[in-house]
């Protein structure tokens, strides 16, 4: 092993002993501490474009004067309902939460939806605003879903018992939620024509709320019970995780959401390696996708992915200064594409597959027109990964469920991917599989739910880095 690679490994192991299994011995720390303190203007930070702040809503006066406050005001008469702890959102969150007397207003700033939640005895006068606002009972007693991006958050909150039905096409990779569906505790229903009909005069089930994502083409937004849950569209790993507070507001679970988010955020920042070891050569990484329909390869510029690589101590491919796609039917495109990927140490292949268990290294070699793997270090060194390791019912990926809600586990995974153990052992990688090593998918729904009560809350694990003894 080259000295540089050894240094990389050691730097990962020593950057923050709070995130390392403390019962392992940490010989040599002072030497590496010195290394960390060196400053360098070669420091590579997040190389993507700055995250775009979602537009603030253009509603000039969305709130009745004096009727709402972001925090409890002593001028307001005491609420006649039980005190509800407020969820405090970060200033750059893509949603806002307002708590009034017996009611709440939640705004989704990505797609400009506003929701009014009225508690028992709440002020119905709050409805008379000149805005498009959907009204819900607070807390919700039941709901349905058409996006599995809510599932990871439901588990952390422990409100899966209020999920009273899902469409038969719904997929989930969650061990516990999929078992609730398979055993019929969460019934399935067939969609007919206009998707989710919430009209109780029909035979179809009626739900107080339908949680969906506005990112997907559908007419769900026109339903009065639609709640647009857009964690998946948000910019950064922690901003995405913070949507637990948005969801919690509909269930009066703000306090738990704050606790869970604080825990995830501090674990994430503890692992965050991006500012450490600045004078050490970092592995070069790209997320890339092949479109089978159009025969082109593209590199991802999605900010949360670039942020994760940067925070894991990797160097993002500068895909801004190259063609936006590579047409594999054109030889010159193939040549440029080959020269770009030959510079990469690690590749994360995001190519969509309807059946991930059938997707292997051979698919990549064929679609990238690669005959000689030895010319590509990510192939020669077997560092070609995918995030479809955990697959569930209807081929749902845990990448869009647990990984969305718990970025601290994703960051831990990526550190292990970028700075592997020198003995080649792979430690505790949850969401990624290495197809260059022939690693296959795991059917995550076949394991038993680790909680006796399948609807009880999941406690987010505090993840830490292992000490690689052999280094
Ligand atoms: C921490 O490391 C020690 C020694 O290697 C091991 O026995 C112990 O199980 C580890 N703890 C955890 C939580 O992994
Ligand atoms: C970074 O490493 C190089 C090569 O080892 C060395 O020449 C240089 O002085 C270092 N820079 C800093 C700021 O430590
Ligand atoms: C939301 O509102 C802002 C301000 O009015 C507007 O610029 C933006 O395009 C809207 N976004 C959507 C998705 O409609
Ligand atoms: C509410 O939505 C309708 C249709 O989407 C639109 O025509 C109307 O201008 C909106 N009203 C406000 C106050 O935004
Ligand atoms: C959801 O709650 C509403 C209001 O309590 C009720 O009318 C409806 O039947 C419930 N739906 C299901 C599927 O439980
Ligand atoms: C949903 O509403 C939008 C705007 O209000 C409208 O343009 C669209 O046709 C509606 N879709 C359906 C399926 O009704
Ligand atoms: C990780 O740390 C770097 C350097 O301190 C910082 O710029 C970056 O924003 C952090 N990541 C997150 C998600 O906060
Ligand atoms: C790729 O190149 C082929 C051959 O020139 C062309 O027919 C095809 O339309 C191109 N595809 C794209 C997506 O540009
Ligand atoms: C793919 O690779 C083969 C052999 O390396 C080459 O002959 C062929 O022209 C390539 N195909 C394209 C479309 O470039
Ligand atoms: C691999 O690299 C060698 C030497 O750089 C070159 O001669 C050969 O054509 C390359 N093979 C392919 C398939 O690109
Ligand atoms: C995983 O197992 C479940 C049965 O528990 C099955 O319904 C599902 O299709 C399997 N998924 C995959 C990807 O094999």
UniProtKB/TrEMBL annotation:
Position of the signal peptide: 1-19
Claim: Signal is one of the keywords in the record: yes
SUPFAM superfamilies recorded: Helical backbone' metal receptor
Annotated segments matching region Disordered: 42-83
Pro residues bias locations: 51-65
Alphabetical keyword list: Signal
Highest taxon of source: Eukaryota
Official protein name in the record: Uncharacterized protein
Organism: Ceratopteris richardii
């Amino acid at each position: 092993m080259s000295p540089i690679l050894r240094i990389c490994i050691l730097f990962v192991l020593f950057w923050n002993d709070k995130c390392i299994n403390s019962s392992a011995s940490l010989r040599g720390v002072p030497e590496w501490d010195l290394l960390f303190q060196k400053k360098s203007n070669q420091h590579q930070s997040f190389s993507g474009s700055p995250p775009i702040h979602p537009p603030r809503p253009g509603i000039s006066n969305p709130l009745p004067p004096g009727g709402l406050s972001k925090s409890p005001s002593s001028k307001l008469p005491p609420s006649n309902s039980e005190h509800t702890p407020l969820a405090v959102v970060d200033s750059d969150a893509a949603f806002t939460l307002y708590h009034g007397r017996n009611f709440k207003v939640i705004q989704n700033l990505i797609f400009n939806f506003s929701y009014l939640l009225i508690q028992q005895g709440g002020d119905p006068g709050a409805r008379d605003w000149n805005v498009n606002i959907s009204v819900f009972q607070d807390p919700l007693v039941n709901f349905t879903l058409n996006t599995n991006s809510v599932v990871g958050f439901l588990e952390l909150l422990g409100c899966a018992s209020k999920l009273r039905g899902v469409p038969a096409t719904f997929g989930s990779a969650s061990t516990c939620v999929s078992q609730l569906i398979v055993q019929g505790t969460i019934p399935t229903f067939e969609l007919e024509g206009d998707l989710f009909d919430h009209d109780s005069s029909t035979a179809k089930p009626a739900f107080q709320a339908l949680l969906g994502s506005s990112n997907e083409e559908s007419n769900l937004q026109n339903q009065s019970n639609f709640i647009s849950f857009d964690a998946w569209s948000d910019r950064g790993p922690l901003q995405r995780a913070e949507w637990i507070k948005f969801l919690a507001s509909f269930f009066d679970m703000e306090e738990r959401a704050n606790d869970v988010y604080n825990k995830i955020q501090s674990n994430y920042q503890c692992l965050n390696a991006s500012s450490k070891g600045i004078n050490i050569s970092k592995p070069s990484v790209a997320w890339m996708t092949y479109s089978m329909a159009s025969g082109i390869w593209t590199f991802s510029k999605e900010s949360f992915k670039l942020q994760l690589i940067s925070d894991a101590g990797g160097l993002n491919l500068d895909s801004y200064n190259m063609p936006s796609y590579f047409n594999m039917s054109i030889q010159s495109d193939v040549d440029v594409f080959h020269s770009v990927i030959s510079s990469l140490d690690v590749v994360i292949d995001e190519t969509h597959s309807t059946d991930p268990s059938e997707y292997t290294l051979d698919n990549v070699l064929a679609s990238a027109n690669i005959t000689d793997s030895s010319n590509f270090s990510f192939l020669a060194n077997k560092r070609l990964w995918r995030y479809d390791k955990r697959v569930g019912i209807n081929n749902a990926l845990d990448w869009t469920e647990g990984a969305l809600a718990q970025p601290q586990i994703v960051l831990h995974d990526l550190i292990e991917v970028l700075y592997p153990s020198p003995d080649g052992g792979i430690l505790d990688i949850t969401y990624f599989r290495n197809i260059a090593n022939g690693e296959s998918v795991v059917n995550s729904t076949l394991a038993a739910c680790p909680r006796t009560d399948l609807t009880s809350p999941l406690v987010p694990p505090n993840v830490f880095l292992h000490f690689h003894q052999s280094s």
